[in-house]
Each structure stands twice: as C-alpha cells, then as structure tokens.
Amino acid sequence: MPVGFVGHGAPTLAIDPGKGGDLARWSKALPTPRAILAISAHWEDAPASAGTTRVQDLMYDFYGFPEELYQIEYPSPGAPDLVRRIGALMGEEVTRHDRALDHGVWVPLLHMAPQADVPVLQLSLPSREGPEALFELGRKLAPLRDEGIFILGSGNVVHNLRRLSWHDPDGAVPPGWASEFDRWVEEVIDQGDFDALVDYRHKSPGLRIAHPTEEHFQPLLVAAGAASVQRDPVGYPVKGFEYGSISRRCVQFG
Predict the structure, then answer these.
(1) Number of domains making up the chain
(2) CA–CA dist 48, 51 (Å, integer)
(3) Which of the residues 12, 101, 124, 225 could staple to 45 if both were Cys, CB 3.0 to 4.6 A apart?
C-alpha cells in the first residue's frame, strides 16, 4: 500500500462536494486497503495509543459550525487485530482507549472511503516525544504496508488559525509566508531529504507563523517515516490553500 498524508482543513470539508471531490478522486486511484491506520493532529497522547475498535458515535470535536455536521455518521468497522499487530511491531503492548474517531479522521474518510466498509483504527500522535520519535514510529509501522494497511497521517502542511481569511475560502491569494513554507515541504520531500523534514524546527522557513503549534504538521513525520524504508516515488494529489493560508496539500508516498 502507499502511505498518505491528508490536509483535512476545516470541518466543513465534510459537506463540501468540490474539495471532497478532490479527495474522492485521489482515493479512487489507490488500491483498496484491508484497513486504514489513521494518525490525526487532534489526538495527542504518548506513548502511541489505539482508539476505538468498535462502531460508535463520532467525536464532533469542533464548535460553531453548521448543524448538519453534527448529524453525520461514519460507522466504519473497528480493527482489533491491527492493535495487536502494531504492538508486535513496536515491541510492547499498545494501550487501548475507547475513544471515538475525531474529525481529523472521519471528515476526510467521508470522501476517501465513503461506504464506511473499511476497518479504521486511530493511533494517537505522541507529539511530546519529539520529531525524531515520530519519524521512527512511522518506520516501525512500515511493514503494515505489505499487509494491505493504508497508513494515513491527517493534519495540514500550513495551519495557523489566527491568520485565517474567511473572505478567501478557496485560498486564491495565500500570503507569502504560507506559500514559502508549503513550497519548502514539497522541495524537501521531492529531494527525499527526510533529515531536513525531521529537523523542521531548524530548517524550515517561518515555522512559528506557519505553525504556532506543531500538531498539524507532525502526522506528516509519521507518514514520511513509514515511507522512508523503501524510498517510494511521491506525488501531491491535492494542492492549494483554503481560508487564505491553510494548506490543502496532500502527499502520497508510493
């Protein structure tokens, strides 16, 4: 299986046929996975822990959005066997939480796996362990690719909610700092320079304005770690911005 990183953007992506269509076209070009392992910016917990392994109500972890968002269901099957397999790869038992899928997972999957018939497991983002540990987590998970598991990081390459432009929902005129950071990510990935990607705190331009907090960037490190084992070709099935400066960039390794 390829490895992916999805720019999940605003929760309204769930009901946006245009932006959702971009994700649907991407997913149609992918092999059908046996299960999806999702790492979202919206669940930070260390060490990496597993979420729900049963069908349950979704987590609507946002406020002030259209009421129809709070009525959406996504009853994907759980993946309890995948929890045990991850534990074997990591060399330790994985802690389980009966935590529902958050919007960083179910919003993009509404378009990428709309039938909700593929088992989904969410793994927490152990952000406080640092960039190197996140990349190494991805490397440990890499064998899952040969077992039909689609590893999907979910965040945004540029994410600064304080600099949103509600007057530019399609990101027609992104500010220079946002374009510069987004372009830097593309360049280092194209070059296979994972060392620079992991060392983004020192190597990237304008980190503190592109990411006042880093959790939306860090799922990309897990995805890159999973992809680094065999250095696959890379593509960007979705590019561009929304609301001025939120990057919609999605990455496919392999």
Answers:
(1) 1
(2) 10
(3) 124
